[in-house]
Write a structure and sequence with these properties.
The structure is a homodimer of 324-residue chains. The first copy, chain A, is of the alpha/beta class and 324 residues long. Chain A folds into 2 domains: 15-278, TIM Barrel (Alpha-Beta Barrel); 287-321, no CATH class. Helix content of chain A is 42%, strand content 13%. At the A-B interface, helix 7, helix 8, helix 9, helix 10 and helix 11 of A face helix 7, helix 8, helix 9, helix 10 and helix 11 of B.
Chain lengths: 324, 324
Amino acid sequence: MKDLAELMNYRESVRVVDATLRDGGLVNDFFFTDDFVRALYRANLAAGVDYMEVGYRASKTMFNPADFGPWKFSDDEKIRQTIGEPDPALKLSVMADVGRCDYETDIRPKSESPVSLVRVATYLHQMPTAIKMIEDAKSKGYEVSCNIMAISAVQEADLRIALAMLAQSPVDTVYIVDSFGALYPEATERLMAVYRDTVAAAGKGIGMHAHNNQQLAFANTIEAVATGADWLDGTYDGMGRGAGNCPMEHLLGFLRNPKYKLYPVVQFVEKYMEPLRASGITWGPSLAYLLTGIFNQHPRAAIAYTKAGRSDICSFFNEISGQD
Amino acid sequence: MKDLAELMNYRESVRVVDATLRDGGLVNDFFFTDDFVRALYRANLAAGVDYMEVGYRASKTMFNPADFGPWKFSDDEKIRQTIGEPDPALKLSVMADVGRCDYETDIRPKSESPVSLVRVATYLHQMPTAIKMIEDAKSKGYEVSCNIMAISAVQEADLRIALAMLAQSPVDTVYIVDSFGALYPEATERLMAVYRDTVAAAGKGIGMHAHNNQQLAFANTIEAVATGADWLDGTYDGMGRGAGNCPMEHLLGFLRNPKYKLYPVVQFVEKYMEPLRASGITWGPSLAYLLTGIFNQHPRAAIAYTKAGRSDICSFFNEISGQD
């Protein structure tokens, strides 16, 4: 029987991370208003969410700040100016992509930053650089996670080698990131067994970041927490790239720790997410995203299909099923 | 390890039932055109679907035929006129609701009907009448299932008594019907264990009919098939009451039996379901349906909220959380 299987009790060690600004920012190029960000912080605080990811810490030499909203870069100054000093009950995180972050200079010592957690996002083959970034952030005083993207497309033998490297590293938590939304809950259960054997056995936490191509983001997150994952990502109204993420309102409706409250999430969705959708910003499950999920492909083809306003889904099926 | 857990092989005994006309008919009062019905039959045949439910066999003394499309009643004559004699590869079913079907007269001997399967839909407390209907349909030569509705709101002790009665009856298959969309996959797994102990032990099949309030209809269907359910309901584009059902395109994208084909489903969705949505017919997951699912309530409040075009979801939250 799985842990949490009684569906009634809870594990104190579970942490919920709101990734709305970061993964949702991929949908609107991070153009969230300061009012939105402040209200989101207050909603998360009221809802008992543990961490709020404010965005990426992207390189300003690689990306032109004029092309993006501020949360592509998430400067410490911008965070302080918008949110102020964070409440100890709701810590902040930023995501640092391997190869797209000037981490040596742009991540300053924790003592000078409102950020508590640096999440290093990496593809499996970039692991040596990811570990260098993990060591850098750890030495500067941060909590650090490693978020392994596109996990449904990696070989288990390679994954085990990478996880053994992470087990030796100072990283605190290692995530399953189902970038393609291709995992079924049983595949999540299998991956969890591999993570438990390796990084959890070395004292690291396990995290789950799911995408909703097959409407399985919530189901995979439930499966992960029931089989030992303590770090769970959600976003308000599921906002995130392509088919989006595990919706925060589903997740907090499921978790039984009394500190989690659903109502502030519903309030925020009514007041802030519905207008965002009404303004024309688009995300969430669709037949096109389902197909890239089933075919275990990056959602970029489905994103392009959606942006172009296409509805010839049979042609799309033939296009992507004909790809290698 | 679960059966089907390798996610690669398949079980010959699995049967897929398309419930689009029947559960989807609850959304548009069964006003499907003959062209839609014929094209759906052809799509199911091409997709390898095993059964197509054409609608209810509702009482014409209780419901006025002028108020509904023909698939509320699914007369044998109307079926023959629209579909003709069914192909042996794609059998037809009708649903007969306990207390809303003149089954003695309206269900004729199988030898006179194009229908193969009668599905008796019942609430738990109506089980004696359901068994009378099961015996009637069985004696007339049909395959018969019993679909136990609102399963998330019944006591396990009561359920075991009802399942013991069904084990003694001539019913072929007993369904879990998650009318409220309130089950989590682990709750499905528990129910499956109860069904295996009782009706499966007596040689009956187990079926799963899921609703999508929490975006778990597909996940619960996967869970059910992996733990022994052979009868799986799906609908095109998830069309069904309220939050809708397990989408057929998700289900056939998952099942590995080579006879199942995804492309005809995608074709039908493009050609027939998208125009239906565009015409203003509404179904599918939303925050209102999520809330009735979390609160384990009938979706009727959320249906009314949706029909009224309301967007004051916080007020709705207070309304339904204040109900007994």
